[in-house]
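The passage that follows is intended for readers who have already worked through the single-chain material. We present the inputs for a multi-component assembly, then the predicted structure in tokenized form, and finally a short commentary. You are encouraged to pause after the input and sketch how you expect the pieces to fit together before reading on.
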Amino acid sequence: MALFADISKRDISFLESEFLTYLLMRFFIGDNSVNINGSDFFYIPVKNIVFSNENTGEKVSIETETIDTCKELYTALKNAKSVSLLQLQLKNETMSIDICLKNAPLRITKVGAPKSIAEDYVDKIIERKLYVRTVFDFYDIMIKDFVNIRISNEWFDFLKNFKNFLKTV
Amino acid sequence: MGLYSGSLTFFRLFYDENITYSLSEISENLLEYSFDRFYDSSRPVNYGFVPLNYPDYADFTSSEILFDNAYVFSVRIDEKKINKKYFDIKFQEMKKEFLEQNKKDFLSKSDKEFIKNALTNKMFAETLPNTSLVEIIWEMDERQVFVSNIASKSFEAVVHLFRVAFDLNLYRDSLIESARKNISEHYKIDDLKNVTPANF
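Having made your guess, compare it with the prediction:
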């Protein structure tokens, strides 16, 4: 019998919902800005958030137009449920892109971009391709931030900050 | 729908091979593995490359593929399905006809196989396909490919075409793969694999 588990076969899928929860927590503690290729963006969770409790399999779907004041949302977070679906808007001064992120496996399942302003066919493709790239750049930056904080002691400070925030609502 | 208008939902695939192609090489390979080149009406599944603005542009000779820093095109997938009940009825009819025409009392195993293959080919040739187009954005500098559909049939077709046409082995994006691509310190990925679930 092996004394140690094979690390390469460890199930680390919990990190996916932790990542989505991390995005939501960052929003609530006011750290929702991100610089993408020199341009300042921020993100806002919108409309639909699905929480799940991996131990019990319980799922809670919350649809709201007012994320900031939604009591059910805070209750779900206080009950240690983690996010399995997160809809958000990625915005800057000139554009707003709708994104839906899901776990198991972690993926971007929906992207709604602004109407193209280009008239020429090639320009339109280039513009819309840029939106796709912006979404994945955002995703990569957030994953990088998440990994860097998740493997350090900052993670515990981050969780403490968020728990303190939850006590105030 | 897709890159020209509608939803911009794309999924990302990566590859590790350090291979670069020129625009002319890519055009040649897209043409060589284009849908029309390999189309066979008797096959249940046909797939191949087509231009992004297909079918307005039917082939790659007059269509743009380089948009800014990325190569953009599509994969057409035609899939035919035969209704099993209908097939069974036709199979029985053909067996009877075969016996009468060949003045036989019974069918050997090879007779049955022959009839079955003939019927399958005939029905695939007569059946209309379900056609889908998967849009592809290939960013060679980043070794990544965005695809508009990642359902298993589409994924398999795209992976196969990239392997045979460009010698590239595509694989799916994941949290760990994204981290691996964006974080140069490998120990961080190892550390991440060792963390225990957080207690929110």
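Commentary: The first strand of chain A starts at residue 33 and ends at 36. Chain A touches chain B through 49 residues (CB under 8 Å). How closely did your sketch match?
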